[in-house]
Amino acid sequence: MSVNPTGPLHIGHGRGAILGDTLCRLLEFTAHKVAREYYVNDRNTQARRFGASVYSRLHGDEPPEGGYTGAYVTELAEEARRDLPGIESRPEEEAEPVLRRYAIERMIERLTASLDRLRVRYDLWLWESTLWNQGLPQRAIELLRQGGHLKERDGALWFAPAVPGWEESDEDRVVIRSNGEPTYFASDLGYLLDKFVARNFHRGVVVWGADHHGYIPRIKGAMAALGIDPDRLVVILNQLVNLKDGRMSKRQGRFVTVDELADMVGVDALRYFYLMRSPEAMMEFDLQLAVAQSSENPVYYAQYAHARLFNVERTAAETHVRLPDRPNLDLIDQPWELAVARQIAFWPESVETAASLLEPHRLPYYVHELADRVHAFYHAGNDQPANRVVVPDPEVTRARLELCRAARNTLRIALGLMGVSAPERM
User: Fold this and answer.
1) Can you give the pLDDT at residue 47?
2) Burial environment of residue 405 by CB neighbours within 10 A (0 to 12, 13 to 18, 19 or more)
3) Phi, psi of 420 (to 5 degrees)
């Protein structure tokens, strides 16, 4: 994740964070070694505007044009007044970098708390400025210069790689502006060296907003020019999330935060609903459905299936009837039983496909199918006592219990990969 740390996470950011986290869970489950990173932009234009906005609020002024006006900016200014004695008396060119660093650190604390609540964690919060301190962007620029991939025009330094597949129609590709300031693309060049050369990751998977589509060929071209296989970077574009009301703007302070959404629907429903759509699909979050305690609510439907299976096993344990040590699975022969067994059998292939294609939305599809078959299995027992799990015949009871345990464990694991709880009672 690399959302600018200039404000709270809104519901669109939450979708990307949960998508990335679920991908990590899937890859770890399928025996990959995974590192989770949050790339902290602290040198770009938005970060400087953020620092300038805090400086303005510190002096009771309106933020500059394009700055941030949310109430949290005023809160940060007052916290800085308390924690940085005398900061308000320093000139802006001296105070802004200090305030920017302070405000971003405070925002990271808030972001961490929000992400913890969403059950999302990162192994490393990598600051953009760290790359420059290590000389990585500088090294990347020099390598591109030596390779003939840079040119000067209008006083600025431009990226113009001599590699196959580069389209001249691609958008702006300035590396160093005419005023000597590096662009965020320059920082990204250093990040490529850090990730694929210095730390030698086999593959980098990044989740970007859909508005970054035009940036993909530029970054892939940079990789090729630096001698890095572009296929080592996988970019997943994440579409917007809409609620029925309101626009979102961190600068203007108008947005629905992911914390507010979690307050409304709970973390389980929030994560499940985010994962039900492929990332390239626009999403309208249905608040009313997400809180409904009915079979129409897919997360409730899945969790209720798990709770029902747990209840069946608990009921069987309370009967104190001695059952065979090993189940005779030949006794699982009814259509509703075999439907559950078949869906369980699909699990290894389903999870492998979701991991290899980097498509976590396959998980809720699988869970819903299994829950559907579990509920049908349960209702068969309601309709006819002979179809219940616990019956007078201990052999049949033992076989059906084995099916219940397999289904419950599969639901628990699948929900866990989605970061969704598997309750024992509902």
Assistant:
1) 93
2) middle
3) -110, 140
Q: Are 37 and 194 in contact (CB under 8 A)?
A: no
Cα-to-chain-centroid distance, residue 230? 23
What CA–CA distances, in Å, run from 368 to 29, 274, 381? 20, 15, 20
For 165, half-sphere exposure in the C-beta direction (CA atoms, 13 angstrom radius) is 11
| φ and ψ of 413, to 5 deg | -65, -45
Backbone angles phi, psi at 30, to 5 degrees: -100, 30
DSSP letter assigned to residue 325: S
Domains of the chain in sequence order:
42-124 (no CATH), 292-417 (1.10.730.10)
Residue 163: phi and psi, rounded to 5, are: -130, 150
Side-chain-side CA neighbours of residue 70 (13 Å) = 19
Q: What is the pLDDT of residues 103-154, one digit of tens each?
A: 999 999 999 999 999 999 999 999 999 999 999 999 999 999 999 999 998 8
Q: Which residues of the chain have pLDDT under 50?
A: 169, 171, 245-253
User: Which 8-state DSSP code applies to residue 423?
Assistant: -
Of 143, 229, 234, the C-alpha closest to 189 is 143
Closest CA to 237 of 193, 273, 282, 201: 282
Instruction: Give burial (CB, 10 Å; 0-12/13-18/19+) of 322.
Output: exposed
**Ranges of H-type helices in 279-361:** 287-291, 298-318, 335-345, 347-356
Q: Could you tell me how many helices (H) and strands (E) the chain has, helices first?
A: 16, 9
What residue type is assigned to position 220 of the chain? K
Where do we find the tokens 């608040």? 287
103: tokens are 């405000």
- What 3-state DSSP class applies to 425? coil
CA atoms within 13 A on the CB side of 155: 5
> Which of 330, 304, 321 has its CA nearest to residue 426?
304
3-state class (DSSP) for residue 153:
strand
